[in-house]
Amino acid sequence: MNPDEREPYIREHIAELAGESFPDDVGPWRILEIAHHGEHSTVAFEEPPHPDPRVSHRFKLILSFGSTLPPETVGGYEFHNQAKNWRLLFGVDPMQ
């Protein structure tokens, strides 16, 4: 699947993609950014603000697009609000 096809797929399926990796967070999700590199794509997204400002509500998934759908989630990040940076929660990031 080329990047032009991936972006609409990600936008249409963000609830399922996010729900598989972050089941405790229900959305609704707002996509912040999508980037592509080779067979991988990253999608940064957020859920509505939490009453506690220390709680993160921004996430990033690294998706591996092979020959079949859905893509494989190979890594996930959470935005650390106090440190103001992304923290790898699971997997790897082959785009680095």
Q: If you had to describe this structure to a student in words, what would you say it looks like?
A:
The protein has 96 residues and is an alpha+beta fold. The protein has a single domain (3-91), classed as Nuclear Transport Factor 2, Chain: A, CATH 3.10.450. Helix content is 20%, strand content 40%. The protein contains 1 helix and 5 strands, in the order αβββββ. Strands 1-2-3-4-5 form a 5-stranded antiparallel beta sheet, with helices on one face. β4 (72-80) and β5 (85-91) form a beta hairpin. The longest helix is centred in the N-terminal third of the chain and has 19 residues, at 3-21. It is globular and about 40 Å long. The two termini are 21 Å apart.
Features:
single chain; 96 residues; alpha+beta; Nuclear Transport Factor 2, Chain: A; five-stranded antiparallel beta sheet; 1 helix; 5 strands; globular
Helix and strand topology:
Blueprint: H1 3-21, E1 30-37, E2 40-46, E3 58-64, E4 72-80, E5 85-91
Antiparallel strand pairs: 1-2, 2-3, 3-4, 4-5
User: How are the strands of the biggest sheet laid out side by side?
Assistant: 1-2-3-4-5
- Rounded to the nearest angstrom, the radius of gyration is 13 Å
Shape: globular
Structural class, from helix and strand content? alpha+beta
Low-confidence stretches: none
